[in-house]
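Hallway conversation turned thread

IA: we were arguing at lunch whether anyone had actually written out GntR family transcriptional regulator end to end. Turns out nobody had. So, for the record, here is the sequence (234 residues) and right after it the structure tokens. Reply here if something looks off.
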Amino acid sequence: MSVYPGRGVHGQVVEAIGRSIVTGQEAPGSTLDLDALEITYDVSKTVVREALKVLAAKGLVDARPKRGTFVRPRSEWSLLDPDLLRWQFEAPEGAQMLDDLYEVRIIVEPAGARLAAARRTDEDVALLTATLGAIDDTSGAKEIVEADLAFHRQLLEASHNELLIRMEYIIEIGLRARDLLVHAEGHQDDFLPPHQAVLDAVRDADADGAERAMRELLEQAAKDEQEIKNRGRR
């Protein structure tokens, strides 16, 4: 089993079974053998049953008399659950998920940047400035990924819209997967300018400029991602 920090043996079983379902190793409609799971993961029946309860709450499995525990159709999964989002980006169709993420981001984040420009506080600006200020020519991919995640999270928080802020959980998981791919491929140099353009517009309370800068940032990010995909097909 892979390590599942902070969640113990129970969490590790949730992680292992959940990933096996989402990545297609356990197909929708297939029956899960609880005795086999107990042996495979070297845990008690109680741990297996508790793990399956968690997965049932996420819409992945169900149990019926005479049929046992089975994998539910993908249409019934809680696809916005943080764990499911993470597992989906690890699945074979993860590339399609990145495309879906872009469509969500291009709808949400320019509007979020517009609101941030209209509502940001001095503290919001200071946080965004510090995040970008921590990046320089010596920063590696890891530092850039963390700064990117922090910047987009802080920008949504600067919108001061509670529901919009919750979108960060959807965006951040996919953004991490996307960033690890893109920045590891040598796109560090083009990180700061588009982000700085968004920050400048937010600082200046320029709602139109913030929305436009964010849209341009996302469009460039999509081009970088497509370039890497094309390179992988050659």
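OS: looked through it. Strands lie at 31-32, 61-64, 68-71.
IA: good, adding that to the notes. Residues 1-6 have pLDDT under 50 and may be disordered.
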